Amino acid sequence: MGILGATRRDFLKVVGAGAGVLAGSEAVGRAAQAGSSATKQADAVREQPRDVPVVHHCDICVVGGGSAGVFAAVRAARLGASVALIENNGFFGGVATAAKVNIWHSICDTAGEKQIIGGLTVEVLERLKKRDAVVLYKANESRYAVFNTFEMIIEIDELVREHRGIRSFLHARFVAAVAQDGTMTHAIIEDKSGRRAIAAKYFIDATGDGDLIARMGLPFTKNDDLQPPTMCVFIHGLDEVEKQNPGFELGRAIYDPRYPNALKRSFFWSSQAVGSPGTRMVAGTRVNGADCSDADQLTLAEMEGRRQARAIRDIVHDNFNAGQNVSLVGLSSYIGVRETRHATCLDRLTEMEVLEGVRFPDAVANGSYRVDVHHSNKPGLTFRYLDGTEVYTVPGEKPVRGRWREPREKDPTFYQIPYRSLVPRGSKNVLVTGRLLDADRGAFGAVRVMVNGNQTGEAVGTACYLALKNGLGVADVDATRLRQTLAEGGSVVI
Question: Can you give the pTM of this predicted structure?
Answer without folding.
Answer: 0.92
